[in-house]
Design a protein that fits this description.
The protein is α/β, with parallel strands linked by helices and about 325 residues long. Helices cover about 30% and strands about 20% of the residues. This is tRNA N(3)-methylcytidine methyltransferase.
Length: about 325
């Protein structure tokens, strides 16, 4: 649902630039900041007043899951996103975790571009993957089933969830497992039954593992997802992620950074909030600075382990243009 569009240039970023260089410092972010903030063409990005129409602002205040559903239907072929092969280099914990049935929650899975590298890299991992689009989940399952991943049918468990709005289902982590981090009272699956969502199959396999829930997850992967939901919903969304993590579990974060080149493709009327923009199709994009990310995650109870800008010069070999890409890389832990 919320999966962002970094995939359109991912070939040059991953394959042509090389996996080993992916998380590097091709340029200094402070130098980029100075260039951008002194450029007269970009002044509207830094004005306090939001120069958007009332209709755009009104739309931005509503959940945009329908816009992402339409987006994924348009790109149902799966060619829009590339498999994120860099993922295991950036987050080696996904490979080193050798616990039996190591549980990973992929939030906003799209067509499975994050799921596949995890399943390939760790043969003991079970990946629970959610999205707000049933069509997207069906496509992701087709792609994973067609791969050469070992035991993919048992280890890939997609389920429907619009998590910024409804929160995660109780079969993922019940009240007792969530403990004091629980924000909303959930009903235990063993009392509620197994047919209360659109994915249909996930509750049945979760109940095989436990009479109430699966006991939370070891990792939450939040990869180019948070920036695609309304900014006002981000604190609640992150607290939901915190609540389903086991004590000591890790949240792995990567998303658009402030002054990424795609930020400057937006026109003034597309700006619906500070660093927040709406495309013509209704999907949102937010660009993070390190302080914002830190405040969001630490405010939700996480311990910061890693947080930095990833600054990459990506060359488009078709036109020879160099693009300065900026992502935020973060790793956060739930206290033990």
């Amino acid at each position: 649902m919320w999966k962002m569009r970094e995939g359109k240039v991912s070939k040059s970023e991953e394959e042509e630039k090389g996996e080993a260089e992916y998380h590097s410092k091709d340029f200094d972010w402070e130098d980029l900041r100075a260039d951008v903030e002194n450029h007269p063409s970009f002044v509207h990005h830094f004005q306090f007043h939001i120069q958007s129409s009332s209709s755009s602002c009104s739309s931005s205040s509503q959940p945009d899951s329908d816009a992402w559903k339409r987006f994924h239907i348009r790109h149902s072929s799966g060619k829009f996103f590339k498999e994120r092969r860099y993922l295991l280099k950036e987050f080696p914990e996904l490979v080193s975790c050798k616990e039996e049935n190591c549980k990973v929650l992929e939030v906003g899975c799209g067509n499975g571009s994050t799921v596949l590298p995890i399943l390939r890299g760790n043969e003991t991992a079970v990946v629970y993957a959610c999205d707000c689009s049933s069509e997207t989940l069906a496509r992701a399952k087709e792609i994973v089933d067609a791969s050469n991943v070992i035991a993919s049918e048992q280890r890939f468990r997609p389920f429907y969830c619009d998590f910024p709005v409804t929160g995660f289902p109780s079969w993922l982590a019940c009240n007792r497992c969530r403990g004091p981090s629980l924000r909303v009272q959930h009903t235990c699956v063993s009392d509620a039954g197994v047919n209360d969502n659109k994915a249909g199959s996930e509750d049945s396999y979760s109940l095989k593992e436990s009479g109430c829930c699966i006991g939370g997850v070891d990792f939450v992967a939040l990869i180019f997802t948070l920036s695609a939901i309304p900014h006002r919903q981000m604190p609640v969304a992150i607290k939901e992620c915190f609540s389903v993590l086991k004590p000591g579990g890790l949240l792995l974060f990567r998303d658009y950074g402030l002054y990424d080149m795609t930020m400057f493709r937006f026109d003034p009327e597309q700006r619906v909030g500070p660093r927040e923009y709406m495309r013509s199709d209704g999907t949102l994009s937010y660009f993070f600075c390190l302080d914002t990310v830190r405040d969001l995650f630490v405010g939700a109870g996480f311990i910061e382990l890693e947080l930095d800008y990833c600054c990459i010069n990506s060359v488009n070999h078709r036109n020879g243009k160099s693009m300065r890409r900026v992502w935020v890389h973060g790793k956060f832990q739930k206290h033990v």
